[in-house]
Amino acid sequence: MQTIKHILIILFFMSYSNKVKAFVWLQQDIEQQVDSLMQKMNLEEKIGQTVLYSSGMDITGPVLDKAYKDHIKAGQVGAIFNATGAAYTRKLQKLAVEETRLGIPMLFGYDVIHGHKTIFPIPLAESCSWDLELAEKSARISAIEAAADGLHWTFSPMVDISRDARWGRVSEGAGEDVYLASLIARAKVIGYQGDLKQNNTILSCAKHFAAYGAPQAGRDYHTVDMSEIRLRNTFLPPFKAALDAGAASFMTAFNELNGVPATGNPFLLDEILRKEWGFRGFVVTDYTSINEMTHHGYAAELKHAGELAMNAGVDMDMQGGVYKNHLLQSIQEGKVSEARLDEAVRAILRMKFKLGLFEDPYRYCNEETAPNILMAPEHMEFARELAQRSIVLLKNHQEVLPLAKQQKIALIGPMATDEVHILGSWAAQGDRAGKAVSLKEGMEVHGLRFAYAQGCEILKDYRVGFEQAIALAKDSDVVVMAMGEAEYMSGEAASRTNIQLPAVQRELIAEIKKTGKPIVLVLYNGRPLDLTWENQTVDAILEAWFPGTNGGLAVADILVGEYNPSAKLTLSFPRNIGQIPIFYNQKNTGRPADAEGAHPRYSSKYIDADNSPLFAFGYGLSYTKFIYENIALSHDKLGPNNSISISVEVTNIGDRAGEEIVQLYIRDMVGSITRPVKELKGFQKITLQKGERQTIRFTIEANDLKFYNKDLEFVVEEGDFLIGIGGSSEVAMKHSFTYSNK
Ligand code: NOJ
Questions:
Q1: CB distance 207 to ligand 1 below 6 Å
Q2: Which of 579, 600, 615 is the last residue of a domain?
Q3: pLDDT tens column, 593-614
Q4: Counts of helices then strands in the chain (DSSP H, E)
Q5: Is the distance from CB of 72 to CB of 108 less than 8 angstroms?
Q6: Four-residue CA torsion sign, 724, 730, 732, 733
Q7: Does the Cβ of 153 fall within 6 Å of ligand 1?
Q8: Most buried in the list 75, 201, 203, 271, measured by CB within 10 Å?
Q9: Mutational pocket test of ligand 1: of 84, 207, 263, the residue with most ligand atoms within 8 Å of the beta carbon
Q10: Domain hosting residue 450, numbered range
Q11: Number of separate domains in the chain
């Protein structure tokens, strides 16, 4: 028996080492191919590889500027974005492959942010599922559809941490928490890229490097000024996670960081990304962000801006034309070295080789198979499943939900029949009207007894529909109101200084309230809203976000209880906008308002609002209830070489099966810099049948406690730690252990 085991082990290692050898060989092979191609390239052709242009659109479909076509034929374009469709990308690729001296294929990029044709819930919504498998799978399907449509490269994932709901782009991220967002960043990169060997895997792009999620006053593109400790502890980890998962490219951010625009920032791009982290992919700018360095007041003219970007480590210029127009001169003048250009070109070519484009430049252009792949039934089915798991139940007074089938329902609101906004922002290729499923259609599928009145529009201040809606409400048992933001009210360039529902919608809710009927508010929006008034007014709130192509079905599934909601918030909902930025992992201050004996006035608080958010990070209700008991630690001493196992018993005490996201928080009591009041360090998503109890275990090691300390060392410091486990970040931190280096 022992001998057989030994033979098996030897065989395993032989095959493993063969795989390693094959991998190393492949890498070497690619490097050699890149080198030999580069020897043939002249300076203009090398610069060409750093040029990324956007295709345009007219009513007949995608079109490319005549000048860009000429540049392609001259071998001066390395990549195109916003061109989709297997036939169209094939046509463009032909120009590069058949009409240029060296025939170097182009890369086709696109903002495939939450699905390509089949649109999934917006990324913020998806993160509320806390489900890494689903997050990976949605990226996988996005890649399959994008690749079928001629694309090689997505400008996703956006891994910017943000704690400011005024910023419209919180919709594109994974929320406020570093730990969860880092795991999601990893899942997305793996989902898109796989091993990059098949023709249905695509390059990912971690963006926007860095600190784009912390613009001053929540205004998009605005200035960022933050300490390096904060940058490293909060904003960089998701980027590092994306890189560790193999992210092929990084996109620079529009903002400046501590006075230096991110696109010309050697500290970010060279010191951290390349030297410290060893990144070997390529760095692309955001849209014209080299050019924008003149507005920042960092470069007097474009040529200088290009030099700053290239020398900082930017390899590809998105749409700015600065490298195209000025880089040759900068090199001739010795302002940029040819070696630096070579490094940029090498990074780009490496990815083209990895994608297999030199073997077959058209391997992503398959016109015949595309129709069977785009919006395939299994993709749509998955979109429904993911939407179910992304929708957060915020309030359910007297169990008004789920609805009973015999109830007479008044369905009211501008989002009830919507098939456009429900896709959310960055759903450019998503098929809207006709393909997307509205809530009304979802309710029809479930055979509910309902009548519909729009009541009002999303924004327009008309009350003409109020009367009909009120009459409908009066004649019903329960009112479902589908309200929210228009899709363009979140996303890029959609910062808001007021994050309430539009006034006309609130007025309609107030009128319906007067009928005395129970109100279920279904919300479609891309950011946390100020729901203080709604929370006092309506009976149930279902946060549907922008749930994607099959969103209406998923919402209806939850309304009738066919799916029991399980999602939990990943971004705090403030009580009012004045609390922003608000997040659970804040610092304690010297005068914490909740400390024993805190001064009634001179403690850190507002005089007109509570400190706590309206709905906290990690919060979300279910149609059943879970209780947490008997938290136990295997040891109360942790060192560099052992671990602590923490267990908790979770019981489903309600009357139906449900999923729960069990969350573990830790507090480092004293540090060389002050530490947050709690930090998420683990979570598990479990399913419990009615009455079922399960023991859940977490393991904590020294590594989990590391942070960048006052000397910017990534270490664990000795001392006491507190632990809390529960179903939201508002858990009591009652258990403790001590860490010692001995
Ligand atoms: C600007 C956005 O900031 C970025 O996220 C996007 O990928 C590019 N435009 C390309 O569309």
A1: yes
A2: 579
A3: 999 999 999 999 999 999 999 9
A4: 21, 28
A5: no
A6: positive
A7: no
A8: 203
A9: 207
A10: 399-579
A11: 2
